[in-house]
């Protein structure tokens, strides 16, 4: 009876689907365990062998937990909104919903391309997903709840004093009773103070405008990354080297009215929560750096008048009160305030246009235009390029009253801190480099040294250690700590500063000028946003003819013919009916890709609930994700936003826990092994790799499917691949073969090195794929794919099969197992259980191989050994394990059979094979019980005929015996 993986795997995949073997229960007496993968974006390219790595690991763990008696929730779905589908729709004229559906379910798209379909690809690998809970973020029955969460955010504010979000109605009550003077809230800057009477006197529109300054999601003019080529705003992580990751279009910085979310309100909780979760230190550090907590002072520098003397005299004659402008700076080094020699504003800073002198206007505007083409991330990363322009304006030092020149420079970001820095060149490397670069120019004073006994002739002194402040008036002689405290006290005394804790984390822009995203449940009355009542959700994405922005620059939803809100009918109606009386315009932007992914793990808990995103009972039972596996590239995007939304929903009484994911593992990348052919320059002749030395050749990537496991190129396939290769000629090696070069690179279609799981499953079976991916190396490390190595794993499965079957059928017997049989089994039980708990999956596969080799050499076919062995293998190779279990006479799935129990007694050695030496030279070995005394060992050895032969009638002078180690006869 031969091992036939394709037949076996199809049989058991059908069985699992029909029996719903892996369906989790929301009410169970078993303890729960929630295992989650970061759900994929379903592109038309489908899966390659690198994609399932994390899924296989989570599946091994999920199956192991079922064997341990847990009620396991292991779901899967699709992050199906997003820019790639929209761009593909623009290019091909297809509807994004159609291409997304085909990418998931498989089929032929309108271009005639055959799409495998994510669902079918995943099923072939044999995952134990609870498919009854599948979610797709682009389905209205899913995003109605995303819209509902948005409404909750809109109707909430954050109380600093109590450190959590509350309903906006509670804030309105406070305003009605006592105004806003004593309210400690996270809100917009420069909110005007009003009394209770003033609040009551305001119109409804005025009240709404004030409340927008406090809401957790709000409209504001924001600096954004605008991509004209894509017609949309991009997040920082969607930009690479100043261009869009998708399409490579230029990106500029511009101001737009956008929806934003006050994630900054949760900065401290996001920071502290990292102490309570089991994540890698590198991911935690990424989030700490992104949140960027720093303690220091907020200092106000008054700007001197930048008007010409003539303008100033005219205003004085007209008795016009001159406008006073202040530059606010957050600094972590208030102790160095006397070392300030210039100030630098971000080019986008609001004050730049106000304070720039006429003489500097042209230079400043040219610089701002140039800077707008660089992303924030690019500007932050570029520490070598120094650029800036003097505004012509001066600020006043709060203590010395000396004029301080004000510059703009792109190393200062509008979105970080206040968008301004007080430059202390003697104490900061970047300020030092800037000051030296512009040394001698108008508006750049000499560097001041405010550190006693420190030489700054070659570099700044940035350390806080061993600091003694000098040339600093009342701070002279103080160390960093004391000088900081005294400087803040003096700033507060003169009303030009205050102690402050600052965070780098900015509020998250939540609008996208795209079509393929969640519609906002928002309409506008007198330009102010109103929420559509939750009972009327979902507000479904409308049909549009074009997915590009409108001719007058509106987002794609501006093309929708039916996109207005009828407040009388509570329905979406034709835009032609807008009368701003009962029918109003709807929001034209859509939500960003991270909206649907910021809460999806909760939907899995109760995926078919029509009324709530999940019931309280389901949320209380599953609580949070016990194990989350996914890519580290989401550290400061999805993982941060998810934590933010979870904390908000906890504040509002919906989420049961503060953190969504208890343990996080970031799987490494499986890299491709690219194949290269070598063309002689200026010819169509290709040289075998071992013949290229001394030749002028051009390496060209070639499809890895044209190359066998010996790196030999299939010439006929290569020549038929591209028209220009039809007439190719070849210089072969000594064996008449063309050998390609190999290089490990990212697996990519453009590198022709993609291997699909479908191909591997068809040739070797899914169990081989699963075992091989786990065998490649530690889960969290990157490792290269090599199809040639997979045959060894396939050979192992065939060897495992032969323990149970020969050509005539089942050969498992009821023989009593030997000590060696039991030792091999229990070594494996212990190793596999420990490895899975520690996520060391590669060493488990090695142990399986050792065990099967040992049992084969022991000629073991005992049921007592082989039944538990099938269970051990089951998490890794579930199809073959199910078949073995069934053939052994069991009628139910192996998936929930208890995991074998390790018994240490089977690993305890009772005998010892002693080397018996004569004058230090080993002559033979003898196996003896370990509990014998020295005297008993000596008696047995002396009577052994081999000893008598060695002694040849002599009596040894000395017999040295160390029980459990050595026996040596001397003389």
Question: What labels describe this entry?
Answer:
7-stranded mixed sheet, 6-stranded mixed sheet, 971 residues, alpha+beta, 38 strands, 31 helices
The biggest beta sheet is recorded as: 7 strands, mixed
Structural class: alpha+beta
Measured distance between first and last alpha carbons: 61 Å
Mean pLDDT: 93
Q: Judging from the principal axes of the Cα atoms, what is the shape?
A: globular
Q: What is the strand content?
A: 15-25%
* SS summary, helix count: 31
GO molecular function: leucine-tRNA ligase activity
EC number: 6.1.1.4
Protein name: Leucine--tRNA ligase
Domain Leucyl-tRNA synthetase editing: 288-491
Architecture overview:
The chain has 971 residues and is of the alpha+beta class. The strands form eleven sheets. Strands 12, 13, 14, 15, 16, 17 and 18 form a seven-stranded mixed β-sheet that branches. Strands 27, 28, 29, 30, 31 and 32 form a six-stranded mixed β-sheet that branches. α25 (790-804) packs across α27 (841-857) and α26 packs antiparallel against α27.
Short characterization:
Helices cover 33% and strands 19% of the residues. The longest helix is centred in the C-terminal third of the chain and has 19 residues, at 819-837. Belongs to the class-I aminoacyl-tRNA synthetase family.
List the helices and strands and how they pair.
Layout: H1 5-19, E1 32-37, H2 52-67, E2 71-73, H3 83-92, H4 96-105, E3 107-108, E4 114-115, H5 118-124, H6 140-154, E5 156-159, E6 164-167, H7 168-178, H8 196-201, H9 204-212, E7 217-227, E8 232-234, E9 239-240, E10 243-244, E11 252-261, H10 267-273, H11 281-291, E12 293-303, H12 309-317, E13 326-331, E14 342-345, H13 351-355, H14 361-371, H15 376-381, E15 389-396, E16 403-408, E17 420-423, H16 429-437, H17 480-493, E18 497-503, E19 508-509, E20 522-525, E21 528-531, E22 564-566, E23 571-573, E24 583-585, H18 594-597, H19 600-605, H20 616-622, E25 625-630, H21 638-651, E26 661-666, E27 670-680, E28 685-687, E29 697-702, H22 715-721, E30 729-731, E31 741-745, H23 757-764, H24 766-775, E32 783-784, H25 790-804, E33 805-806, E34 809-810, H26 819-837, H27 841-857, H28 863-873, H29 878-887, E35 911-918, E36 921-929, H30 934-943, H31 945-951, E37 958-962, E38 966-970
Helix pairs in contact: 1-29, 3-4, 23-24, 24-25, 24-27, 25-27, 26-27, 26-28, 28-29
């Amino acid at each position: 009876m031969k091992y036939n993986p394709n037949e076996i795997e199809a049989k058991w995949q059908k069985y699992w689907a029909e029996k719903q073997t892996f369906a989790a229960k929301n009410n169970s007496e078993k303890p729960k365990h929630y295992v989650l993968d970061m759900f994929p974006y379903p592109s038309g390219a489908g899966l390659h062998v690198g994609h399932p790595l994390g899924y296989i690991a989570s599946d091994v763990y999920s199956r192991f937990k079922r064997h341990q008696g847990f009620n396991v929730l292991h779901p899967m779905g699709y992050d199906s909104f997003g820019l790639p589908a929209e761009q593909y729709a623009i290019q091909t004229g297809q509807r994004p919903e159609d291409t997304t559906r085909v990418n998931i379910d498989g089929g032929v798209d309108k271009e005639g391309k055959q799409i495998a379909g994510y669902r079918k690809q995943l099923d072939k690998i044999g995952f134990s997903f609870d498919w009854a809970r599948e979610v797709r973020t682009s389905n209205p029955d899913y995003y109605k709840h995303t819209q509902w969460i948005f409404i909750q955010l809109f109707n909430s504010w954050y109380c600093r004093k109590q450190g959590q979000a509350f309903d906006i109605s509670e804030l309105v009550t406070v305003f009605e009773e006592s105004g806003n003077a004593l309210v400690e809230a996270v809100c917009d800057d420069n909110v005007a103070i009003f009394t209770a009477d003033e609040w009551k006197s305001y119109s409804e529109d005025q009240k709404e405008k004030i409340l927008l300054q406090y809401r957790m999601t709000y409209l504001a003019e924001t600096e954004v990354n605008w991509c004209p080529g894509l017609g949309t705003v991009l997040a920082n992580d969607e930009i690479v080297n100043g261009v869009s990751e998708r399409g490579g279009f230029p990106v500029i910085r511009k101001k737009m009215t956008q929806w934003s979310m006050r994630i900054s309100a949760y900065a401290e909780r996001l920071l502290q929560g990292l102490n309570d979760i089991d994540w890698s230190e590198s991911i935690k550090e990424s989030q700490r750096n992104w949140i960027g907590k720093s303690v220091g002072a907020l200092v106000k520098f008054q700007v001197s008048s930048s008007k010409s003397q003539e303008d100033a005299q005219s205003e004085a004659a007209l008795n016009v009160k001159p406008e006073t402008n202040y530059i606010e700076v957050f600094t972590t080094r208030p102790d160095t305030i006397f070392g300030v020699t210039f100030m630098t504003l971000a080019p986008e800073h609001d004050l730049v246009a106000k304070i720039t002198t006429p003489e500097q206007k042209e230079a400043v505007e040219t610089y701002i235009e140039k800077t707008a083409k660089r992303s924030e991330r690019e500007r932050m990363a570029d520490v070598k390029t120094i650029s800036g322009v003097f505004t012509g304006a001066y600020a006043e030092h709060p203590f010395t009253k000396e004029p301080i020149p004000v510059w703009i420079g792109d190393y200062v970001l509008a979105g970080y801190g206040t968008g301004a820095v007080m430059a202390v060149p003697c104490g900061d490397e970047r300020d030092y480099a800037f000051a030296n670069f512009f040394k001698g120019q108008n508006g750049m004073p000499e560097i001041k040294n405010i550190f006693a006994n420190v030489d700054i002739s070659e570099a700044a002194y940035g350390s806080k250690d061993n600091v003694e402040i000098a040339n600093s008036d009342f701070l002279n002689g103080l160390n960093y700590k004391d000088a900081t405290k005294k400087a803040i006290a003096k700033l507060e005394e003169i009303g030009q500063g205050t102690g402050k804790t600052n965070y780098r984390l900015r509020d998250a822009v939540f609008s996208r000028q795209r079509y393929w995203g969640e519609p906002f449940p928002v309409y506008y009355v007198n330009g102010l946003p109103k929420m559509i009542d939750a009972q009327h959700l979902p507000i479904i994405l409308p049909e549009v003819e074009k997915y590009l922005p409108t001719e007058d620059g509106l987002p794609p939803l501006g093309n929708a013919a039916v996109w207005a809100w009828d407040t009388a009918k509570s329905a979406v109606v034709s835009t032609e009916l807008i009368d701003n009386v009962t029918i109003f315009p709807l929001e034209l932007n859509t939500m960003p890709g991270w909206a649907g992914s910021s809460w999806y793990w909760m939907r899995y808990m109760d995926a078919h609930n029509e009324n709530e995103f999940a019931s309280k009972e389901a949320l209380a039972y599953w609580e949070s994700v016990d194990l989350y596996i996914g890519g580290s590239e989401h550290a400061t995007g999805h993982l941060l936003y998810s934590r933010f939304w979870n904390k908000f929903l906890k504040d509002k009484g919906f989420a049961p826990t503060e953190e969504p994911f208890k343990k996080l593992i970031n799987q490494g990348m499986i890299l491709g092994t690219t194949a290269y052919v070598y063309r002689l320059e200026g010819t169509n002749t290709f040289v075998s790799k071992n013949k290229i030395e001394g030749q002028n050749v051009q390496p060209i990537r070639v499809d890895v499917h044209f190359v066998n496991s010996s790196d030999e190129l299939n010439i006929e396939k290569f020549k038929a691949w591209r028209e220009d290769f039809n007439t190719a000629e070849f210089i072969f090696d000594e064996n008449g073969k063309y050998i390609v070069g190999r290089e490990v690179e990212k697996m990519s279609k453009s590198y022709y090195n993609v291997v699909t799981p479908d191909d591997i499953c068809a040739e070797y079976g899914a169990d081989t794929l699963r075992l091989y991916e786990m065998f490649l190396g530690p889960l969290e490390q990157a490792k290269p794919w090599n199809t040639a190595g997979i045959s060894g794993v396939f050979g192992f499965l065939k060897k495992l099969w032969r323990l149970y079957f020969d050509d005539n059928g089942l050969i498992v017997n009821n023989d009593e197992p030997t000590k060696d049989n039991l030792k091999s089994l229990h070594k494996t039980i212990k190793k596999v259980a420990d490895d899975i708990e520690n996520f060391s999956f590669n060493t488990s596969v090695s142990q399986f191989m050792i065990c099967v080799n040992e049992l084969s050499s022991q000629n073991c076919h005992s049921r007592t050994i082989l039944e538990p062995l099938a269970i051990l293998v089951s998490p890794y190779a579930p199809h073959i394990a199910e078949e073995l279990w069934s053939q052994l006479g069991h009628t139910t799935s192996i998936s929930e059979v208890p995991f074998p129990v390790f018994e240490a007694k089977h690993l305890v050695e009772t005998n010892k094979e002693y080397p018996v030496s004569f004058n230090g030279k080993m002559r033979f070995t003898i196996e003896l019980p370990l509990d014998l005394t020295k005297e008993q060992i000596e008696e047995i050895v002396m009577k052994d005929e081999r000893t008598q032969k060695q002694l040849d009638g002599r009596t040894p002078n000395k017999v040295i015996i160390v029980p459990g180690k050595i026996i040596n006869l001397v003389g």
